[in-house]
Amino acid sequence: MAREGLTINPAKTCQPIGAMYAALGIHGCLPHSHGSQGCCSYHRSTLTRHYKEPVMAATSSFTEGASVFGGQANLLASIETIFSVYDPQVIAVHSTCLSETIGDDLQQITKKAKDDGKIPDGKYVIYASTPSFVGSHITGYANMVTGMAEQFAVSTGEKTEQINIVAGWMEPSDMREIKSIAGLMDAKIVLFPDTSDVLDAPQTGKHEFYPKGGVTIEALRSTGDSKCSLALGCVSAEPAAVALDKKCKVPFETLDMPIGLSATDRFIMALSKAAGKPVPASITADRGRVVDVMADMEQYFHGKKVALFGDPDQIMPLTEFLLDLGMKPVHIVSGTPGNRFEKRMKEILERAPYANFKNGGQADMFLLHQWIKNEPVDLLIGNTYGKYIARDENIPFVRFGFPILDRVGHSYFPSVGYSGAMRLIEKILGVLMDQQDRMALEEKFELVM
Amino acid sequence: MDTQNISLLEGREKQVYEKRAGGAEVDIACDKTSLSGSVSQRACVFCGSRVVLYPVADAIHIVHGPIGCAAYTWDIRGAVSSGPELHRLSFSTDLQEMDVIYGGEKKLYKSLIELIDQYQPNAAFIYSTCIIGLIGDDIEAVCKKVAKEKGIPVLPVHSEGFKGTKKDGYKAACHALMTLIGQGSTEGISKYSINILGEFNLAGEAWIIREYYEKMGIEVVATMTGDGRIDAIRRSHGATLNVVQCSGSMTTLAKDMEEKYGIPFIRVSYFGFEDMSKSLYDVAQHFPDRPDIMEKAKEIVRDEIRKYYPEMQKFKAALAGKKAAIYVGGAFKTFSLIKALRTIGMSVVLAGSQTGNKDDYRALKEMCDEGTVIVDDSNPVELSKFILEKEADLLIGGVKERPIAFKLGVGFCDHNHERKIPLAGFIGMYYFAKEVYESVMSPVWQFAPRKGGKR
Asked: Which residues 339-378 of A are in CB contact (within 8 Å) with B?
């Protein structure tokens, strides 16, 4: 089917939800959606379905009046209401297609709120422009993380030993893992944003409006004095590192998100180098175990064809990992537009000239399904929406990415680092072998695999 | 923030009411838009239209706007179909910056042509999202043009998110349905016939209800919109009576059909033994010249209750004296839930809705026990506060309320889009009691700190 205008079954969603997710990674922050009530409701519902956690965010609740006269009055009223009733440390405002089209200027409105004394002492309002008709949820995430860096970082002129790690869009479990790796290495880091202990909070008998996790304002302010930044993901993390460099002269290095063996190797080496600390024996042993399992099970991976879809910073290193495992990533789709994806994928796929990949307009699940029908695969990896294709085509399916609406685990077990690589191996092998067992003829049904 | 000692959100006093002996008359200021800056559980106009029309399974539903609105509403509602499943796909014009500047009409036109050629639907619904009104796309014109070229109804749904509340979205959806109604032939439709309105076939509920009516000897012309079909909707003006559930969403349509086609309507609810029985009797009463219909209704009620009553006593014994909080979309549903909970020995300590009107809240007050809190358009802080204060054991709500209940150590029942089992009909009451029982009595609570961490 030739298509010009239409997107069928998208492999992306809109900017504001990314901004909301990023803002939840600041301690004591209430994300605020400057637009219609529905946007906020949809984002909260989607995040709740993915995390099985309460997600708090406020909305400007636009009405027809706001669309004629501009949303300034709504936002100013919102800021007042929020500080007096919900008492956050920070309000992180993001725009929507509606407020962007009307032409609301968030910078000017937040300045006016400050000038009018609507922002109490010691409290903050930050903002990010996140028009839904540009980019994707990943763009919105990157914009809000950039907003954090730009609007909080302060340069005192004295550099510290601290390293900034800018997290690309990853799970709370991943952020926890990155902090744990840095702890093992005795590297002093500040990770931002940080949704661990926010969106994976324990059951306590209370509804904590502001759970204990999240990067603190103090830590965000200190990022301006850090000796360097590591940005984990060229699409979702790098823009914040660039902003820090511009504002506070913090040099940065952009890395792939540490998913799989090679990308984790590069991350560990870069962190070790930046911190001036050796790689501890325990990390080396973790790596050894991953390589051991890869060797033990190589026959099950070899030559298996894979289709994958999702967000660029996650599927680029995942593609590399699949190649490291001896698998063949044949179809790759990402709804997020931008040429960084194409450039990096070309590098990674030098070993795999057979692969189809596309991102941006019409890079959707319909296209992926067409490709799979043309050239069938042994494995599908992606978010929950892959389940229709997996069922139609009887393909083993590993859930990975955002959103995952029908399984748990992603917020508790990391995909990054060597433990993440181990988990991916386990998941991939699990579905491949289950399929082999299910489809095997009686005489080929094996006990030992 | 300590949610146990908070006061009400300023400006919300008029949307919260506590029933006390000799207390003031209920005068909830509902029908008002949410306060800017509140963490409201409400949605928008688009959401209202989308949920009402979504179950029409042989039409394509195309969301005209940036990608989000289509992405967030992709197959999230378990409205099942017995045949085509076009409604489970997500179609979007995915508007980009250039479209916002130059307009999206061409893109919409092309998308519609591509889609209709590919899927051969019986109709197309085109939802306008927030910015469509602002950029000035004339979707009426595009719809007319495509309808003419392709020979199927192409219906604009004016659902710009900010142009009102979810209720206005219901109206826009009803308006689109009204355009279809009257286009089909009513030949062969029985005099003893109804349309089922406001039943969305979540987890197959419409099938259960339809079967009861058919057993009574009544022809069901169309269900709107559960397991919906364009042709059935087009000839639904041939029915003798409209039976309206979920009054919030479909009363507009029932009134319009009454005015234009002279079809009377009754309001019913299919939740709980009491209301379910009444909805069969009320329909039977409409056909007094056929006493056999009433006889059959009585027989169904008798058989069904006999089937499930003994099992229910088991649940009731365990649940007696437990307290429930209800926060759902429509107020009418709250009435049924209060009665259904009483059947299993539970009392209601909090009753609220997103979209109730003054009459609803007045009726709610009549039904509730003393001390019950009644809220309109509530928020998580308020809900947590009242659940803890009133020591509820169960919350009935939707997706955003579920994790709040669990964090508080309180059982939960989804009475919204995400129900996985039918809750309507006699069998639905059994499932409802079972689900409530399983959640309230779950062994997990022995490990979980409850009620504010105190026990």
From this structure: 361
Q: What pTM does this model have?
A: 0.95
Q: How many residues does chain A have?
A: 449
CATH says A283-443 is which class? Answer: alpha beta
Fold of A163-279: Rossmann fold (3.40.50)
Cite the residue boundaries of each domain of chain A with CATH code 3.40.50.1980.
15-152, 163-279, 283-443
Helix (H) or strand (E) segment spanning residue B154: strand B154-157
Q: Which domains occur in chain B, in start order?
A: 13-30+309-446 (3.40.50.1980), 45-180 (3.40.50.1980), 193-302 (3.40.50.1980)
Decide if B67 and A136 are in contact by the 8 Å CB cutoff.
Answer: yes
Query: At residue B354, what is the residue type?
Result: Q
Q: Would you tell me which residues 210-269 of chain A have a C-beta closer than 8 angstroms to some C-beta of chain B?
A: 210
Using alpha carbons only, give the angle B49, B51, B56 rounded to the nearest 5 degrees: 95
Nearest-neighbour CA in chain B from A252: distance (Å): 31
Residue pair A336/A299 in contact by the 8 Å Cβ criterion: no
CATH class of A15-152: alpha beta
Q: Are B387 and B405 in contact (CB under 8 A)?
A: yes
Q: What is the pLDDT along chain B (455 residues), one digit of tens a residue?
A: 444 444 555 566 777 777 766 556 656 666 566 678 888 778 899 999 999 999 999 999 999 999 999 999 999 888 999 999 999 999 999 999 999 999 999 999 999 999 999 999 999 999 999 999 889 999 999 999 999 999 999 999 999 999 988 889 999 999 999 999 999 999 999 999 999 999 999 999 999 999 999 999 999 999 999 999 999 999 999 999 999 997 678 999 999 999 999 999 999 999 999 999 999 999 999 999 999 999 999 999 999 999 999 989 999 999 999 999 999 877 778 888 999 999 999 999 999 887 777 777 788 888 888 888 888 777 888 889 899 999 999 999 988 889 999 999 999 999 877 788 999 999 999 999 999 999 999 999 999 887 666 65
Closest by Cα among A196, A165, A173 to A271: A165
ipTM value: 0.94
